[in-house]
Structure formats: structure tokens, C-alpha cells
Amino acid sequence: MLYALMAWDNAVALNVRMENRPAHLAYLESTGVVRQAGPFIDADGNPCGSLIVLEVEDMAAAQTWADNDPYAKAGLFREVQISGWKQVIGG
């Protein structure tokens, strides 16, 4: 099943994001469950959150994936939401 993970960064967290970006990207690649991913962008053009579409068995697997993301472990996010998602267009 597909799950959309939407996460919003803490205020003034750009340095945390950039310091942990290589580990985050390696994690996305290594897990083999990421179907789409990219940052939300603020009015100044800076990343301020993330949207990641996961293909995993269930919500528990999506939550486990999210908990192990290096960004989450570094405390980057102020809020994370995970929801089942149905792809209608694309892919």
C-alpha cells in the first residue's frame, strides 16, 4: 500500500537539514520503499519540509520507516503526518 509522509521542519532548521541530507538520501535509496520524495519549499526558495511516498505493507511499517529516517533522528521535524494514499494520475 502507498503512504504519504508529510513532514514540516522546525523553525531555523536549515542547518540541521543540510548536515543530515547525505544520510537522509542514502536512507531513501537503501530502503527500497520510496516511490517519490522531495522537499516542500518556502517563500524564499528554501526547503522547509518533506513529502515522501512510501510503498510498504501497513501503517506500522510506514511509521517505523519514518522513525528511522536520519532527519527524524536529528530532530529536524516539528510535525509529521502519515496517511494512506491512492495514486490516481502518473506512475
Number of strands: 4
Number of helices: 3
Second-tier CATH architecture? 2-Layer Sandwich
Question: Would you tell me the overall average pLDDT?
Answer: 96
Question: What's a concise summary of this model?
Answer:
Helix content is 35%, strand content 36%. It has 91 residues and is of the alpha+beta class.
For the structure shown, list the relevant keywords.
alpha+beta; four-stranded antiparallel β-sheet; 35% helix; 91 residues; Alpha-Beta Plaits; 36% strand
How does the SSE layout of this entry go?
Elements: E1 2-9, H1 14-31, E2 34-41, E3 47-55, H2 59-68, H3 70-73, E4 77-84
Antiparallel strand pairs: 1-3, 1-4, 2-3
Give an overview in words.
The protein is 35% helix and 36% strand. With 91 residues, the protein is an alpha+beta fold. The protein has a single domain (2-84), classed as Dimeric alpha+beta barrel (Alpha-Beta Plaits, 2-Layer Sandwich), CATH 3.30.70. A four-stranded antiparallel beta sheet has the order 2-3-1-4, covered by helices on one side. Strand 2 (34-41) and strand 3 (47-55) form a beta hairpin. It is globular and about 35 Å long. The two termini are 14 Å apart. The relative contact order is 0.33.
